[in-house]
Amino acid sequence: MSQAEFPTARLAAPVFGEPYLLTPGPLTTSRATKEAMLRDWGSWDADFNQVTAEIRRELLAMAGVSDDSYACVPLQGSGTFAVEAALATAIPRDGKALVLMNGAYGKRAAQILDYLGRTHIDLDKGDYLPPQPEEVDQLLRDNPDVTTVFLVHCETSSGILNPLAEIATTVKAHGKTLVVDAMSSFGAVPLTVDQVPFDVMVSSANKCIEGIPGFGFVIVRREVLEASKGRAHSLSLDLYEQWAYMEKTGQWRFTPPTHSVVAFRAALQQHAAEGGVAGRLARYTRNRDRLVAGMRELGFETLLEDRWLSPIITTFFSPDHPNFDFKRFYAELKQRQFVIYPGKLTIAESFRIGCIGQIDEAVVAQLLRAIADSLAAMGVDRCKPAA
Ligand SMILES: Cc1ncc(COP(=O)(O)O)c(C=O)c1O
Predict the structure, then answer these.
(1) Half-sphere exposure of 236 (CA within 13 A, CB side)
(2) What is the pTM of this model?
(3) How far does residue 79's CA lie from ligand 1's centre (Å)?
(4) 3-state secondary structure of 365
(5) In 3D, which of 30, 10, 20 has the Cα closest to residue 271?
(6) Residue nearest (by alpha carbon) to ligand 1 atom 8
(7) How far is the CA of 376 from the centre of ligand 1 (A)?
(8) Kind and range of the H or E run holding 111
(9) Where does the Aminotransferase class V domain start and stop, copy by copy (predicted)?
(10) What DSSP character marks residue 325?
(11) Where would you tag: which of 161, 197, 310, 357 has the fewest CB atoms within 10 A of its CB?
(12) Other CB atoms closer than 10 Å to residue 186's CB: what's the count?
């Protein structure tokens, strides 16, 4: 690999000598975000309520929606909790969903609907092929009783960025409700209601806004939320009640993840200072481009063609070499201060490397050197995947 010159790291190195997390969240956070957690907060206290109000406002602004037509409802738990609450809210008990899937998170939504007892039909495109607007159009023509369409924006299991805007336009043309899982894209890939007419959008604290885990949030059209009273299957995942209580009291309905919330406010301030969504997209795109170019120089191949590669995470095929073993590769990289992610494909051996979190091109350059060194230590001199 040629050793081009890279800018020196603008971003602080991980604080306690811990490895960089090149994973899709939890991810490497900044020192300022970690430091925001060095204080305890009373969950009923006005100071904390103000933080909650501030992050709700900021998130609505990021989605390009106003307070009178949409609401932002944060919910304790990981992203899946928020997806489950959102699906239970958006789909009437006698409704029917069309689930567009091309990976693990679309499949998970269908599994949630089975738990919820909601009828659904699925368009399953396998490990990574994108659902196409024409297919969605045909399915909606053939199934006029569908009330709600679910799509994952960036399907993190392969790294594909699905054609959300085109599909959203089709769904709206049919007058259906659109639920978007933008868990791993919101904050770094533009997603505003003028471009993507969504009804419900779900994301979480520990992805592109670079907070820590602890809660997810749902941005939902007020009409949809208001119609959902009494629909939820679960007390703690009742999005309507969470919203109604927050509106009335300014507080979270049950114990809030206080430290995660204040860390998130700090992360939002840094997000704004970096230039908002555009600034973050630019840095993640540079990370991805440097990563993909460097890996290709080493002989690796990406799962996806360039036009489908998200700036969030990239899947690489594992080398077809007798000495390559993912567990050993992972350990060699961890020893060199980088944590990567296993693959999730059913068709081939693969692994994933994230481009998000507090990393820049200088860190990616260090990673590429660490990969070259790890391969040398393993005796892998050819990275071409199996045919
Ligand atoms: C697109 C997408 N949806 C849902 C989830 C589930 O989130 P969690 O693991 O926080 O429950 C993830 C997690 O990475 C994701 O990437």
Answers:
(1) 7
(2) 0.95
(3) 5
(4) helix
(5) 30
(6) 79
(7) 34
(8) helix 104-116
(9) 47-312
(10) -
(11) 197
(12) 26
Residue found by looking up tokens 């050819």 in the block: 382
Report the C-alpha gap between 156 and 125 in whole angstroms: 15
Contact 4, 362 (CB under 8 A): no
Kindly list the structural domains of the chain, giving each domain's residue range(s) and its CATH number in brackets, ordered by start.
3-30+276-378 (3.90.1150.10), 37-271 (3.40.640.10)
Helix (H) or strand (E) holding 26, with range, is: none
Structure tokens at 359: 């990393």
341 dihedral zone (left: phi>0; alpha: psi -120 to 50; beta): beta
CA 83 – CA 200 distance, rounded (Å):
10
CA of 328 to the centre of ligand 1 (A): 26
pLDDT in tens, the chain (387 residues): 343 444 444 565 666 678 999 999 899 999 999 999 999 999 999 999 999 999 999 999 999 999 899 999 999 999 999 999 999 999 999 999 999 999 999 999 999 999 999 999 999 999 999 999 999 999 999 999 999 999 999 999 999 999 999 999 999 999 999 999 999 999 999 999 999 999 999 999 999 999 999 999 999 999 999 999 999 999 999 999 999 999 999 999 999 999 999 999 999 999 999 999 999 999 999 999 999 999 999 999 999 999 999 999 999 999 999 999 999 999 999 999 999 999 988 889 999 999 999 999 999 999 999 999 999 999 999 999 998
Residue 312: count of CB within 10 angstroms of its CB: 28
